[in-house]
Amino acid sequence: MRTQVCIIGGGPSGLLLGQLLHQANIDTVILERQSREHVLGRIRAGVLEEGTCRMLERAGVGDRLKTEGFIHDGTMIASNGHQFRLDFKAHTQKHVTVYGQTEVTRDLYEARDQTGAKILHHAQDVLPHDVTLNTPYVTYKLKGQNHRIDCDFVIGCDGFHGISRQSIPSTLRKEFERIYPFGWLGVLSETPPVSHELIYANHPRGFALCSMRNENLSRYYVQTPLSERVDDWSDARFWDELKRRIPEAAADQLITGPSIEKSLARLRSFISEPMQWGRLFLVGDASHIVPPTGAKGLNLAVSDVHYLTEALLQHYQEGDPNALETYSKKALARVWKASRFSWWMTSTLHHFPEHGGFGQKIQEAELAYLEQSPAAQKALAENYVGLPY
Ligand code: APR
Ligand code: PHB
Q1: Could you tell me if 19 and 110 lie in one domain?
Q2: CATH of the domain at 209
Q3: Could you tell me what percentage of the chain is helix, strand and coil, using 3-state DSSP and rounding each to the nearest 5?
Q4: Which amino acids are annotated catalytic?
Q5: Is this prediction's pTM over 0.85?
Q6: Fewer CB within 10 Å, N- or C-terminus of the chain?
């Protein structure tokens, strides 16, 4: 088989890139290791920057997002038993849209179905070859049979555990990592959200977040030590812990119910440089991971897709031989800024036992300063709604 661009991984990065290239008459094949149901079963953050919404609209998948997404002009920040509102709109004239990543992925799958472009599920042992030559190809197994796709470019959209990044020789890769000494225990429940905007709460017992998917679907998180197991957390224990960490007024209004999903996620900052090796390009989680505080993961994947789409269009439509050479540098500049912001949100809002009482007081002072300082609020708002690209 031959295609112009072979995309490894059918998560949001691979699907969005595939859609934008299809619109430009560039042929793609997507190779996905899992089933479609598996990919659509993942629950991830649901806060979209305006740039992300623009890209989804451009890809022709903005309709449901427009009718079912919730526009948030601000967020609540809680500390020391007290909460205040951070007004994104007043500081940036921008907002974010609350719309689950699962829904984004579903919309992208439906759009790909309509184009008839190829997506092969259950592709095993996917491996890129000869990416430093002009004739790269990808091998894989499907139902026990070996296959090969010849292409112009290979794009690694295969997430943190994918093979694309690892196929770059380790001597050419530089990896930067911070592992945080805690996780997030998340619960999804069919209950009305406690607040119409998100609440990010700093508390000596640990961070808590009140988020949502729609009027009757709430998403809540509490910070837990890495030693905790999901099975040790009954619904009652979760609700009790959440109530202790959010301001009393919110706790009094919290409507609890049975959890329909409960999971523990570790927090990590990770960046692998560069994002290109010859004709292999990395996009999204394949190259970088941010902790979920601030919900930058999907938004960063989308800005990578933006830079790569522009470069591929310049290559194919304008014959610019150098367009692709600047991809890694442009994408990484934004990745590092969003990683800094996610690290800052994580560091400021979570409890770090090793930092003791001093660390807690410094966080409370920082959040009190944030409440009083329009300059500090603007800096946070600008990053939260998304830096320009
Ligand atoms: N071969 C083929 N497909 C693979 C392989 C492989 N060896 N390894 C992984 N994959 C697939 C996974 O099954 C997954 O569907 O690649 C896809 C990668 O998707 P994501 O992990 O969602 O990464 P990405 O598309 O970059 O999305 C980034 O979405 O996943 C969230 O937290 C992430 O918010 C971030 C954003
Ligand atoms: C979520 O809704 O899952 C969510 C929202 C905001 C975050 C992280 C996760 O910062």
Answers
A1: yes
A2: 3.30.9.10
A3: 40, 30, 30
A4: 72, 200, 292, 296, 384
A5: yes
A6: N
